Amino acid sequence: MRKITWMIVGMSMVVFGKPSTPQSDIVKTGKVRLDLGSYYETTAQPGGYQDYLGGSGVLRYGVLDGAELYVSAAYNGNWAKTFDGKTWKSSDSSGLSAVRIGAMWQIKDEDKGPAVIVGGDVDVLSRDRVDGTTYSSRFRSPRAYGELHYSVDPLTFSLKTTYTLNRTRTLGAITLDPADTLQIAPTVYFSVNPSTSLHLGAEYTRAGTAKTNNKVTTPSHTEVAYVAGASYEINDNVRLGVEGRFTPTAARSRHGLSATLSVGF
Question: Are 167 and 135 in contact (CB under 8 A)?
Answer without folding.
Answer: no
